[in-house]
Amino acid sequence: MGCDRNCGLIAGAVIGAVLAVFGGILMPVGDLLIERTIKKEVVLEEGTIAYQNWVKTGTEVYRQFWIYDVQNPQEVITNSSKIKVKQRGPYTYRVRYLAKENITHDTENHTVSFVQPNGAIFEPSLSVGTENDTWTVLNLAVAAAPHLYPNAFVQVLLNSMIKKSKSAMFQKRTVKELLWGYKDPFLSLVPYPITKTVGVFFPYNNTADGVYKVFSGKDNINQVAIIDTYKGQKNLSYWPSYCDMINGTDAASFPPFVEKTRVLRFFSSDICRSIYAVFGAEINLKGIPVYRFVLPSMAFASPLQNPDNHCFCTEKVVSKNCTSYGVLDIGKCKEGKPVYISLPHFLHASPDIAEPIEGLNPNEDEHSTYLDVEPITGFTLRFAKRLQINILVKPAKKIEALKGLKQNYIVPVLWLNETGTIGDEKAEMFRQRVTGKINLLGLVEIILLSVGVVMFVTFIISYCACRSKKVK
């Protein structure tokens, strides 16, 4: 009887040890299975989760616009006063709803090329008014004239056309006109073959952002979705050296197994450059653990603060000898137009940039850019891209509409918030096919290991107690 009991205790201990060992063995094996599955599903080829969502996003993406309504246009024109603005919005459009086109797979180089069609559908229910709401805004054509045509004689000719068209530094325009284009009365008088239509995003509808070429990740998972070329160019050729490099992905996804220490680099055609985000916090998004990566202030820093930005400083006057920060001159990729990009309300910009403007209230929560990335797959499940469009306006002695100015202005025209969040149905599918399996496997590993250890320890203690009692 004693032998049977001892044998039972020993057998129990052995079973416990086996379970513990099996649980321990299952951990690396499980991790290997997870890694193998993820590496298969994130490759951009037909049949994978990544490809399905890459061709046409299952997430509804919206662009909200806030227009800067100028309150004192005549004071600015006459006295070169501070520009008082009040933001009006949001005016919301659904974007990124069209599937990628001209998708071509290069199996030899493991790349995929495509174009992304652009389209915008107004969403009245998500807007404060209609597209016909009218506000006082900067006259884009008049403001750009002295930059595009610096010759004094040409400016005299342009001035006569500006006066004849009764154009001024500021104008009243509807939201639809300002965003998507209007026939400008001043440009309509120019007797040269130039585009007569002006708009912050003109042309947009029925155009395409591309051609892009990205790596599929088939041969190297660490390159998946990373851009190889944009519009057929490996470099943008707008700036020398580092600044013209296309780094990273399009921000929709990143190579898998993202760590908090990684710097996520992505290219944005809106700002004609690659930029980056750094880890900010851990977030739970619809039951899915994600890492929030945020655009740091150093991305728009001056060359003194961030030497990597040295080639974005293209002139010395407006930038105050490259000491100003928080704005980016992208005129070289906007056909020479004086376009400057910043974060909304000049968030993280040097005080001299915002000093001539009244009515701005920068706020980190409302005006910063972030990406919520699921770290195992590298998929971006939620994002908020926030940018402000500004125009540099300089005094021009030969143009009456601008000759009263006594200082340079970087005038905010509007700011946008482009957002997208994984839908409930997609989130459920993601939990089932990815996080659910990973969590289940992890739970099995822990249970086997825990039960095995408990059984082993319990039976060993019982065996020792039994032996001790027998000796007595």
Automatic annotation (TrEMBL):
The keyword Cell division belongs to this UniProt entry's keyword annotation: no
Gene Ontology MF annotations: low-density lipoprotein particle binding; low-density lipoprotein particle receptor activity; scavenger receptor activity
Domain of life: Eukaryota
Transmembrane regions: 7-29, 440-466
Coiled coil: none
Cross-link (Glycyl lysine isopeptide (Lys-Gly) (interchain with G-Cter in ubiquitin)): 469, 472
Nucleus as UniProt keyword: no
GO biological process, one term: cell adhesion
Location(s), subcellular: Apical cell membrane; Cell membrane; Golgi apparatus; Membrane raft
Catalyzed chemical reaction(s): hexadecanoate(out) = hexadecanoate(in); tetradecanoate(out) = tetradecanoate(in); (9Z)-octadecenoate(out) = (9Z)-octadecenoate(in); (9Z,12Z)-octadecadienoate(out) = (9Z,12Z)-octadecadienoate(in)
Protein name: Platelet glycoprotein 4
Organism from which the protein derives: Crocuta crocuta
Lineage per the UniProt record: Eukaryota, Metazoa, Chordata, Craniata, Vertebrata
